[in-house]
Sequence to fold (249 residues):
Amino acid sequence: MKVLVAVKRVIDFNVKVRVKPDSTGVDLANIKMSINPFDEIAVEEAVRLKEQGLASEVVVVSCGSTQSQETLRAAMAIGADRAILVETDAELQPLAVAKLLKALLDKEQPQLVILGKQAIDDDCNQTGQMLAALAALPQATFASKVEIDDDHAIVTREVDGGLETLRVKLPAVVTSDLRLNEPRYASLPNIMKSKKKPLDILNPTDLGVDVTPRIKTLKVVEPPKRSGGVKVPDVATLVTKLKNEAKVI
Ligand code: AMP
Fold:
């Protein structure tokens, strides 16, 4: 079973993002970038399937600038076998990424495709669902457990107030949730090994995909600054303040 995993290069989750002064987006200059955390979980899951003898090959794919090669090397240090970069400096929106991944699915014919449930930079939570629709494949999103049962995947999903278990026929698209697993730290020998693993580079035209954005971002602004709290002497004062100042009751 070949597993294809999509990984995105995003601003590291520890970085406090700064909005550009002209409000057109987020400042990326001199910022630490990392593999999207949900994608790291997706890679870990695919590698575990390989370690259990259920997957034969783990292929990681990223779409973006040439720097995404670092992200792919990080995924190969976790244990992926090879990588594909769809290189472009164009702004990529989820539909464009889904179309690129669909073109790669046609080429690679994986049995299982794992994506993160969302990229922490755009918070779209769309690409996996769009890919499943474009490729006419079953989908199981927000997976907190994945088991392979012959030609089916049994996927447990975290839903409001409980867990839902789905059975989907392979090939299928699965998106990873936070509790699916805890990714390992890549060891130094594996980081060294990852540098020698194959990494192919294509571009959107090779795949026949038009990545022109469909959506225009009008404005990006920082959240309002939080004002300091105050201590109130008693409940009566609290209620008065909530009524007259905060106007929430
Ligand atoms: P999103 O729909 O943007 O929240 O992204 C959901 C998932 O799609 C991510 O966790 C990745 O697995 C995948 N994805 C999104 N953008 C890219 C990209 N540029 N390259 C590779 N995978 C991506």
In short: The first strand starts at residue 2 and ends at 6. DSSP finds six helices and eleven strands in the chain.
